[in-house]
Specification:
The protein is of the alpha/beta class. The protein has one domain: Rossmann fold, CATH 3.40.50. It is built from nine helices and six strands, in the order H-H-E-E-H-E-H-H-E-H-E-H-E-H-H. Helix 3 links the parallel strand 2 and strand 3. Helix 3 packs parallel to helix 9 and helix 6 runs parallel beside helix 7.
Length: 270
C-alpha cells in the first residue's frame, strides 16, 4: 500500500473518531428548554393492556418517560395519547414491542403495563420508592427501564448519586422475583449518562439496550427530520415535541429492545 493511501486512511479514521466523540461531548443533544414542557401532563400511575389469547400470562412492565407515553396536552399542541412523537398509539415503541412479543410467544397471553416515571428522572435524589408499589406488585416477567432522557446532573443530583438511586430503583421493582431486566441508554446521546447506565446495568445484572447510537447513525430517527411522517405536525406549538422519535425512530427503539428479549426467551426455552 502506498504511503499516501495509508495517510488518507489514518486521517479518515481519526476524523471519524473525532466526529463520534464530539456527538457524545454534550450532556444531551437536546436542550433543557426543548424538554421542559414534556412529561408535565398528569397521568395515572400506569396503564394496562392485554392480548386476547387465553394462554398463561406473560407480563411486560415498561418504566419510561414521554417516549413510552405522553398524555394529551393542548397547551403544547400534543393531541393524542401515545409515546411522543409517534403518529398514533400503535406506532409507539411500547405497542410495537408488544406486537413483536405476541408473535414470538403466541401460546402466551401478553400483558403490558406502562408507567411514566419522569418524576424519578427529575428528582432521583429524593424519590420515594414506596410510591411505585403498584409496579412491584405487578410481578412482571420482563421489566424495561427506559429512563435517563430527563436526567440533569448538578451539585446535588450528581452522576454518582444517580447511579446509586437507579440501582435502588431497579432492585426495588424486581423485588424477590427474577424477571428479565433491560435498561436502555438515552435516545438523546449523552456520554455521561451512558457511562452511568452501563455501570447500573452491570451491578444489577441486567441487559443493556443502546438507543443513543440510533441518532448518530441516521438523523431521520428524529421526527422533525423524518421524511413522509404520517402524523399531523401542524398542531405542534412547543419545539420539544419535534425532538422526540417519530414512527421510524419508534420502530428502531422497539427493535433494539426486542433483540435482547428474543435472545433471552429463546435461550431459556432450550
Amino acid at each position: 500500500m502506498k504511503s499516501s493511501n495509508k495517510l488518507n486512511i489514518l486521517f479518515l479514521t481519526i476524523f471519524s473518531i473525532l466526529i463520534f466523540n464530539n456527538a457524545y461531548s454534550q450532556d444531551s443533544s437536546v436542550t433543557k428548554k426543548q424538554l421542559n414542557a414534556m412529561n408535565r401532563v398528569k397521568l395515572p400511575p400506569f396503564v394496562d393492556t392485554c392480548s386476547d389469547n387465553s394462554g398463561e400470562p406473560f407480563k411486560i412492565l415498561i418504566i419510561g418517560n414521554s417516549l413510552a407515553r405522553h398524555g394529551i396536552s393542548e397547551k403544547i399542541g400534543w393531541n393524542h395519547l401515545s409515546g411522543m412523537a409517534a403518529s398514533n398509539i400503535n406506532n409507539d415503541y411500547a405497542h410495537i414491542l408488544f406486537k413483536k412479543i405476541e408473535v414470538l410467544i403466541p401460546n402466551r397471553r401478553i400483558c403490558m403495563r406502562i408507567s411514566t416515571l419522569s418524576k424519578f428522572e427529575r428528582n432521583f435524589h429524593d424519590f420515594n420508592l414506596k410510591t411505585i408499589d403498584s409496579l412491584v406488585n405487578y410481578k412482571p416477567d420482563v421489566i424495561i427501564f427506559q429512563l435517563g432522557e430527563n436526567v440533569v446532573f448538578d451539585s446535588i443530583k450528581t452522576k454518582l448519586l444517580f447511579e446509586k438511586k437507579y440501582i435502588e430503583l431497579i432492585n426495588y421493582v424486581k423485588g424477590k422475583f427474577n424477571p428479565i431486566v433491560i435498561c436502555t441508554t438515552p435516545f438523546f446521546p449523552s456520554k455521561d449518562k451512558n457511562e452511568v447506565i452501563k455501570k447500573v446495568t452491570y451491578k444489577t445484572k441486567s441487559f443493556l439496550t443502546d438507543l443513543s447510537h440510533l441518532y448518530l447513525l441516521d438523523k431521520t430517527n428524529y421526527v422533525k427530520n423524518e421524511l413522509n411522517y404520517p402524523g399531523d405536525k401542524s398542531t405542534w406549538i412547543h419545539q420539544g415535541i419535534g425532538v422526540h422519535p417519530g414512527d421510524f425512530g419508534m420502530e428502531n427503539i422497539a427493535t433494539q429492545i426486542f433483540l435482547n428479549i428474543n435472545a433471552v426467551i429463546n435461550y431459556n426455552s432450550k
